[in-house]
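Human: Note token order:
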Amino acid sequence: MVDHRQRHTDDWLAHFTRRGHRAPRPLAAGVEGAVYRLGEGLVAKVWSGRPPADLELSRRVHADIARHPLPFATPEILDSEVHDGVLVTYERELTGSPFRAEPATTSAERDLPAAETAALLTVLRALATVPGTEAMRGLTVQGDDRPLWRDRTRFPDALAALVRRATRRHGDVLAAHVPGLAETVRRVVDSLTALPDSPVTAIHGDLVPPNLHVDDTGRPTAVLDFGFFTTAGDPAFEAAVTAAVWDMHGPHARHHTATLTRLFARELGHRPETLALYQAAYALTTYDLFSSDGDDGHFHWCAALLGGQRATSTR
């Protein structure tokens, strides 16, 4: 599987040393950038592929979330710079340790530990209490060319428009792997636009194991890396995506997705049909984010998800 993480480099360590940080060291790396620990409760994030023009909006979104009382910490951007054309943000360091360092290397256990599912429910319930803000509505999800909510007043309608745009990008490549793709797209779009109004809350959009930190007891201490699919939207979308991406490639990935989907439907009051619909929409809007030719693991995961389920109409 292709590795899309940004790599740590000695050049960045030297840069942070020149800025007066005594012993910077690599901390983590992901799709959106590489993080360095600077000491004194501060980290630096070196972004990849994110234009500096988004910075003020991102700062506002982080502030909107951080000012809301939550049982865990979230990022706050304290300062920023552009060095050699690359955006660097300086943020407070978040505590705890990730469930797993790699989203693809999940536990071989068929049944997810109770502490893990309890932590996920805590995070989903808490984020669903954070009201969606204008700054969140102004964000552009990765891979798209405009704010998700532009010219839309409802989240399902905004997501349906995104499905149309995304499947126009490289839909021919996806169609080669998903029989009846055109009908699937039509059904998903129709079902999204038929959804009733729902609360509009903060959506993280990428709650994978490295982005959820816990303490030694399994209690969530921090949620990080907002931005990949962060927006304002239906909390059922957050639950659906989390169930699908928490274990994408492990030996029991399908079982874990099905288990979490049922759990979230039961404990959070979401309709199973709506969760399945949002999972299909997520696959249709992210399938080409890492390559345009279908030659990566995420593409094949999306294709398998779409080929293995029917998006249920909500009419």
The two ends are 39 Å apart (CA to CA). The mean pLDDT is 90. The longest strand covers residues 33-39.
